[in-house]
Design goal:
Largest sheet: 5 strands, parallel
Strand content: 5-15%
Radius of gyration: 17 Å
Distance between the termini: 37 Å
Number of helices: 10
CATH architecture of the largest domain: 3-Layer(aba) Sandwich
Helix content: 40-55%
CATH class of the largest domain: Alpha Beta
Strand order of the largest sheet: 2-1-3-4-5
Number of domains: 2
Structural class: alpha/beta
Number of strands: 5
CATH topology of the largest domain: Rossmann fold
Oligomer: single chain
Length: about 210
């Protein structure tokens, strides 16, 4: 039996995932979490074969939680779920230590397949993402400017590019507006840009926003 922890801040999403998982006898939802601290607390006290982790958790981002989980147990198998397209986060989460990446638009059968593969110690990516990864490897593509950003800086970049204000970003990430402004300054410096408009254009051009 594959024991799964579902971590998502939306109850309707958790219920949907539980419904999908309940249709196979090989997988059981052992626990649920709706924020990062709950995930850490549960993992500290229990063992799971797979953690289904939403990338857009309130407060600390899914990427930061992923990093914490891998430090707690490098062998923990984590399957990241996201509403964002693969271009935005997939390679980054895989580099951070996730065993797989799925968009929430994926078919239920693909989710079950991914859970089984990850639970057995494998890696799971979609065919489309596998082709992109192969392209980058074959062509030795140079790193793009946004790849130099930390996970939190990258998340802030995407939120700025989606049109959110400093105040909105601060509220959504449970951080101060001053902290978000500091992230913005670092992003502009690292990417050699001068304005939100430049950041937005770059993000759109590189498929970082929906």
């Amino acid at each position: 039996m594959i024991r799964v922890l579902i971590a998502d801040d939306h109850s309707i999403v958790r219920e949907g995932l539980k419904q999908i998982v309940s249709e196979t006898k090989e997988i059981v939802v052992a626990d649920e979490a709706q924020n990062g601290q709950q995930v850490i607390d549960l993992v500290s006290e229990n063992s799971y074969d797979v953690i289904l982790l939403d990338i857009s958790m309130p407060g600390r981002s899914g990427l930061e939680i992923l990093d914490d989980l891998k430090k707690l147990d490098p062998k923990q198998q984590i399957l990241m779920l996201s509403m964002y397209p693969e271009e935005q986060y997939a390679v980054r989460v895989l580099k951070t230590g996730a065993a797989g990446y799925l968009t929430k638009e994926s078919a239920p059968t693909e989710l079950i397949e991914a859970i089984k593969k990850v639970a057995s110690g494998g890696k799971y990516v979609s065919l489309a993402l596998a082709e992109k990864l192969a392209f980058y490897l074959d062509n030795d593509v140079s790193a793009k400017p946004h790849e130099s950003l930390s996970n939190r800086e990258f998340q802030t970049l995407c939120m700025i590019a989606s049109g959110k204000t400093t105040k909105q970003i601060a509220e959504e990430l449970a951080l101060s507006a001053k902290t978000i402004s500091t992230y913005r300054e670092r992003i502009l410096e690292k990417m050699n840009m001068n304005s939100n408009s430049e950041l937005t254009y770059y993000a759109i051009k590189n498929n970082l926003v929906m």
